[in-house]
Design goal:
mainly alpha, 2 domains, two-stranded antiparallel sheet, 4 strands
Length: about 325
């Protein structure tokens, strides 16, 4: 085990120490400076959601009783207020601004109407999932946790986008005739759909896995459409966060959706996917693609390979491109 010492006084530090118990210096001072600089730059560019995420990372590195902790809490609260307030308080990266702010309730009504129109024939199926008491209760608990952190508008958008993602899995499972339970929300992790039978065919598993991000992309695009119609910055933030969450799910590791998609690809198709991830990285500079690309290279170099399927490859590549574009301002 590596022993950590305070850089100022040389005191031995515990593994979870955030400040030196002797001299009080911050253990993660340099990282905190970088996060603060990134957050201020993002705020100046109008990327309020991304700035808040950087400040939240900084909060995790500070002692709760410190003055810096309180200051950053105030910054997060102010950013939340500006995001909730709408287009008069911020703008997306790229320079687009809105000069006329609508009341939040008008933006909400217009947004709900637009989403109902966009979802169309899927609405009845989506509402069906809410009839399950386990889904509804766990969703409400999940919403309560994130309401306390981000405020109710963004928390609600986050819950709904994850719900739509999970119902994408459910829809594909029903289409394939595979029994499964309703979505169950787990604060801090997301949500899961428990299968009632084991899936052994890699192509079937890939279809089930990628159906979630496909529906998640639809939810993100719906939120983006609402932003363009209403000008409400909260919808832009929801669209970006939805894109980022679904992009994270494309990491081809463990039980994430990307791993299930990768499992079906032949070796040559895996290298094609790596090339597509590299292209998306050059286009969007979305840092999550470094992680996705690194794991994809590792998977491409493994001896095991799938049967290969052009449709799965095309779906995976399209999701990487579209979701990284949607989440490009979240670094």
């Amino acid at each position: 085990m590596i022993t950590r010492l305070c850089s100022r006084c040389g005191t031995e530090l515990s593994p979870d120490a955030r400040a030196c118990p002797v001299c009080g210096s911050l253990v993660h001072a340099e990282q905190l400076k970088r996060l603060a600089a990134d957050a201020e730059a993002l705020t100046g560019d109008g990327s309020l959601l991304a700035a808040r995420l950087e400040w939240t990372k900084a909060l995790d590195l500070l002692p709760p009783q410190s003055q810096q902790f309180s200051l950053i809490q105030n910054k997060i609260a102010e950013l939340t207020r500006r995001i909730d307030a709408g287009p008069s308080s911020g703008r997306p990266a790229g320079g687009a601004t809105t000069t006329t702010a609508k009341p939040w309730w008008m933006q909400g009504l217009a947004g709900i109407g637009t989403i109902l129109l966009l979802l169309g024939t899927k609405l009845k199926f989506l509402l069906l999932g809410l009839t399950k008491i386990s889904t509804f209760v766990s969703m409400f608990a999940f919403f309560g946790v994130y309401w306390s952190i981000y405020g109710w508008p963004l928390a609600l958008g986050l819950v709904l986008s994850i719900y739509i993602h999970e119902m994408g899995h459910v829809a594909m499972l029903r289409r394939l005739g595979i029994a499964a339970g309703a979505p169950l929300f787990i604060p801090g992790m997301g949500a899961v759909v428990m299968l009632k039978q084991h899936v052994t065919d890699p192509l079937t598993d890939a279809k089930i896995g990628l159906a979630g991000p496909v529906w998640g992309l639809g939810a993100g695009l719906a939120a983006l459409a609402v932003y363009f119609i209403t000008g409400g910055m909260i919808w832009f933030a929801i669209a970006q966060l939805t894109g980022f969450i679904n992009l994270f799910n494309l990491i081809p590791v463990w039980q994430l959706d990307g791993s299930r998609g990768m499992h079906a690809l032949a070796r040559s198709e895996r290298w094609m996917l790596v090339a597509a991830i590299a292209a998306a990285l050059l286009l969007t500079e979305q840092r999550m693609l470094f992680v996705i690309g690194a794991v994809a290279i590792w998977r491409a170099m493994q001896k095991d390979q799938g049967p290969g399927d052009a449709r799965v490859l095309a779906t995976y590549v399209t999701l990487v491109m579209a979701l990284s574009l949607l989440a490009r301002d979240i670094k």
